[in-house]
Amino acid sequence: MSLLQAASYLSQPDAPFIPLADQLDNARGNVYAGPGSRAMSDILRGRRQDIFPAKLTIAPQSYQLLMNFPIPVASLDPPLNGRSTLMRLQSDGQVYLASLALLARKNADGSERSPTLEEWRSLLENGGLSSGRDRCRRL
User: Fold this and answer.
1) What are the pLDDT digits (tens) for 57-88?
2) What value does the mean pLDDT take over residues 37-43?
3) I need a labelling partner for 18 at 20 to 30 A (CA). Which of 10, 70, 122, 131 fits?
4) Quick one: 3 and 56 in the same domain?
5) Residues near 80 by Cβ (< 8 Å), separated by ≥ 6?
């Protein structure tokens, strides 16, 4: 699979929500009013952040993480943050994607760690994530 364009930003500190004028020149792509606005600007400009690989091989019937990024809140006042991610992908076969969130897991010393692929898989398979209305339908 090729990651043609990909961008991911936090609202704090990467792209805070700010009021903007009704119309602004944004020829350089440095004007945005939040993480979604900034991610979309990058995608429209054909950018892929270095945090994403250009290519990724996923074996048939297997799982692979495209990203496993934190959304830190502990040091913020108020403790609010968000992450917007947008990707444009190309694959020579079917790929099923899920966007999931979990609270950070704790190490024995109390520090936080990212969830493992197995923890994500368990959430995906056992988490009761979608209702009948939300389930994916083949078009």
Assistant:
1) 999 999 999 999 989 888 888 888 999 999 99
2) 95
3) 70
4) yes
5) 11, 12, 73
Residue 105 lies inside a defined structural domain of this protein: yes
- Tell me if 107 is assigned to some domain: yes
Number of domains the chain contains: 2
Residue 45 lies in a domain: yes
Q: One-letter amino acid identity for 35? A: P
User: The pTM is what?
Assistant: 0.83
Give me the pLDDT at residue 65, please: 92
Q: Give the residue numbers spanning the domain of 9.
A: 1-62+83-90
